[in-house]
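Researcher: I'd like a structural prediction for the single chain below. Treat it as a standalone chain; there are no partners to consider.
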Amino acid sequence: MAIPTFPEANHPVVKSLSHYNDQELLTLFQRYPDAGQHFTAIFCRYSPMVYTLIQHRAKSPVQADYLFARLWRHLFFEMGGLDLRSFGSEEITFQSWLINVTALCINQAELPPVEEIHYNLRAMSPPFWCYLDRALDHLPPTLRLMVTLAQTFRWSDTRISAYLQAEGEYVPPAEVKARLSEGYQLLETTLPDDIRAIYLDGNASVQGYGLDSASLEASLD
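Model: Treating it as a single chain, here is the predicted structure.
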């Protein structure tokens, strides 16, 4: 399996952070949670190493891509509270911590069959998925559900309306499109400015990115 490359690595915002070491990037990520560039820079720095470790565990490229993305989503949350000093050893570096977490996740992973995986690594890079998923959590519950049903399962306006009515909330089919448009706009404005600059660049919309089934599960928690 070929190691994937990610175009965001060449974005000026990400390249401007190349002089920071791992600890500095981690500190900036924790200090500025409303910015996405620091996590993206860490991802670009270590994605080849992480993917190399993962590809030996997965039986297919689809499973490798899925495990790779799920791992970075796990790292996204773990890094928020990571303090390397708490390990009490000068030998623990960010890279060694990353390798240990990757190995642990690989050993514990229960990968679904290929036909059940809807994630497309080339359509949605893990950092963008992390921040889009976080923005999705900030949507009002009904709007979040509508956006996820439309993007994940490509449900029609009529089907979404019927589902909502069965759940006790009436949204006429004619209003579903307007509500979805509202949801996509709200998603974009909730994303960090630098994530919009890196991944959307003013020429794309979150509507063009399919949200995978894991996002649906998160939205219904």
